[in-house]
Amino acid sequence: RKEVEQDPGPFNVPEGATVAFNCTYSNSASQSFFWYRQDCRKEPKLLMSVYSSGNEDGRFTAQLNRASQYISLLIRDSKLSDSATYLCVVDSGGGADGLTFGKGTHLIIQP
Amino acid sequence: ETGVTQTPRHLVMGMTNKKSLKCEQHLGHNAMYWYKQSAKKPLELMFVYSLEERVENNSVPSRFSPECPNSSHLFLHLHTLQPEDSALYLCASSQGTSGRAWGNIQYFGAGTRLSVL
């Protein structure tokens, strides 16, 4: 079973719409969760951390469901500049001190 | 600008060449990482250095050899690579040295796009 799984998309969404995507993880001991954004041919950049109680940053809302082992990202009033690949990232707490990345969900906002 | 600088940005090499990738972080972090990103695959962690000591190498082939002379610099030495090693190689750094809490937020360099002919 893959450790971190995401729907690769692409999600084609009209500008102004709301879009949401989920990410599932397999390690129930995972402690920290993040959404990173990666633009085409660029490096990943932290979008937001995901807190247990859910958190919001402007048009972006992230939620964690420990029971079902998934995190979600909701984007409201989508902008053309939101077009990117969104990477789900999980800290599984292993000895590697590294993070486990999903393959990413490709989002295309259409005018 | 994330504070993590990688050079070169692009590299083309033959299978018999020896080259090195360089990463420098200006964030005062104490952990540095090498990742490989291939098309259609998630980022693969290759090496982790925490306080200049290697923590994990994830069974990376020996044709990849990391070096961390100090907490600000990280190298990836390449020799006798294969065409399937063509990928984007990303360096990252983080403040934390463990997987706890938010210390492991990672900041990435722009990457070196490597092509092996």
Please, how many helices of chain B?
0
Unreliable stretches of chain A (pLDDT < 50, length at least 5) are none
Beta-strand residue fraction of chain B: over 45%
Structural class of the helices, strands and pairings of chain B?
Answer: mainly beta
Please describe the biggest sheet of chain A, giving its number of strands, its sense, and whether it closes into a barrel: 6 strands, mixed
| Overall average pLDDT of chain B | 88
**CA distance, first residue to last residue of chain A:** 37 Å
Low-confidence stretches of chain B: 99-103
Major sheet of chain B, described briefly?
A: 7 strands, mixed
Question: What's the helical proportion of residues of chain A?
Answer: under 10%
Shape of chain A: globular
| Count of β-strands of chain A | 11
N-to-C span of chain B: 31 Å
For the largest interface in this structure, which chains are involved and how many residues does each contribute?
Answer: A-B, 26 and 30 residues
Please provide a written account of the structure.
The complex is a heterodimer of chains A (111) and B (117). Chain A has strands at 4-6, 11-14, 19-25, 32-38, 44-50, 55-57, 60-65, 70-75, 84-91, 100-101, 105-110. Chain A is mostly beta strands and 111 residues long. In chain A, 0% of the residues lie in helices and 53% in strands. Chain B is 0% helix and 54% strand. The radius of gyration of chain B is 14 Å and the shape is globular. The A-B interface holds A 4, 31-32, 34, 41-46, 49, 87, 91-104 and B 2, 31, 33, 40-43, 45, 48, 50, 55-56, 58, 90, 96-102, 104-111, 113.
Q: What's the layout of helices and strands?
A:
The complex is a heterodimer of chains A (111) and B (117).
Chain A: E1 4-6, E2 11-14, E3 19-25, E4 32-38, E5 44-50, E6 55-57, E7 60-65, E8 70-75, E9 84-91, E10 100-101, E11 105-110
Parallel strand pairs in A: 2-11
Antiparallel strand pairs in A: 1-3, 3-8, 4-5, 4-9, 6-7, 7-8, 9-10, 9-11
Chain B: E1 4-7, E2 10-13, E3 18-25, E4 31-37, E5 44-50, E6 53-56, E7 64-70, E8 73-79, E9 87-94, E10 107-108, E11 112-116
Parallel strand pairs in B: 2-11
Antiparallel strand pairs in B: 1-3, 3-8, 4-5, 4-9, 5-6, 7-8, 9-10, 9-11
